[in-house]
Structure formats: C-alpha cells, structure tokens
Amino acid sequence: MAVDGAGKILLTASGDGTMGVFNIKRRRFELLSEPQSGDLTSVVLLKRGKKVVCGSSEGTIYLFNWNGFGATSDRFSLRAESVDCMVPVTESIVCTGSLDGVIRAVNILPNRVLGCVGQHLGEPIEQLAVAPGGQLLASCAHDQKVKFWDISSLGSIVVDEYRKKKKRGGPLKALSSKAAGSGEDFFADLREEQEATAEATTGSDSDSD
C-alpha cells in the first residue's frame, strides 16, 4: 500500500493484477485499474507524486499517471523473476527485491536497470527499507538475515535519455564493493559447477583410454 503526500488517497496492489484507489478522507472506494497479466505485488509513488509505480510477480514494472489510475501509461520488464517489493530512493530511482535474491536499482523514466545493490544468495527478498538520511538500504530474506547496503551513490547517478546498445544477458553491474562479489557475476557459481563437471568428465575419459 502507499499513501499520497496529502494523506488523502490510498493505493493498493492486489493479487488479482489490479490497483485499488481509496479516498481516505471521504472514506470511499474510488476505482479499480484494469487488470494486468501478473499479480501486483508492490506500489510506490515517484516523480513528486506524479507517477505511481507497481511491481509484479512476472518481473514487470507498471507505471500509472496520477489521476490516470484506470490504465497504465508505461511498462518496463526487468531481467528478474519477479518484483516482490520496492522502495523509493530518489524521485526517479527505486530499489527492487526479487525471488532470485537480487536487489536491483532501477531508474524510472527513462527506464533503466542501473545495477545490483546486493543480494541474499538466491533467497527470495521479503522486504526493503531505506534508513533515515537515505544512505543505507536494509533488506531481509528467507535466509533469516537483515543486511545493510550502501546506496549513497545512487542519488548522484544521472541517466541519459539515450540508450546505449547493450549485450542481452550480460552480467548485472555492481553498484558497491559489497555487491561486486554477488552482482557483478551473478552466474559465477553455476559456471564453476559446470566447469568442474566438464573437468571430471574429461578426466574419466582420459583414464578409460
């Protein structure tokens, strides 16, 4: 759920793929958005309250204009299993938590995945929170740990409207030294396991000869 700065409108994300709009002061239900293809799992306000951003179980971020809640104005698909939770860091940047355990920093309009803030080693992210002052991000997951990440550099990132060509499926950029070991090479463990299997297979073939 999210409430606007005036404390008048309550927005809710629902498992049926819709966003609900409630008028708190008048104590009445206003409207329901058109349903999306996946469950809406989280909702935050950005751009000084002019944009509503919803995460979904399919890994897509849906954007709504303020006072245009009936239909989405834009959508942005992340290379993630889901967007289970979100927290705004600036008026344009949110941090998202996913089933794959990766915490991504995402810029909204222009829509870009900035990189990896950190991860919980494949454990689903349950919740994210920004500490007072906006310098630290706290995360908790199924590994029963609360971790803290330095996000002080996110506020100084400027995203160009021009999108550079990027190789699809490349490694996620690490945004801090702690994230470097996890986010820079997300599939390192899998590759090491495959290499070890290949070496073992090669060794057994040479022995048989």
TrEMBL record:
Name of the protein: Uncharacterized protein
PROSITE patterns reported in the protein's UniProt record: WD_REPEATS_1 (PS00678), WD_REPEATS_2 (PS50082)
Family from the record: Belongs to the WD repeat WDR55 family.
Annotated SMART domains: WD40 (SM00320)
This protein's record includes keyword Transferase: no
Residues spanning the signal sequence: none
Keywords: Repeat, WD repeat
SUPFAM superfamilies associated with the record: WD40 repeat-like (SSF50978)
Mapped WD repeat ranges: 125-159
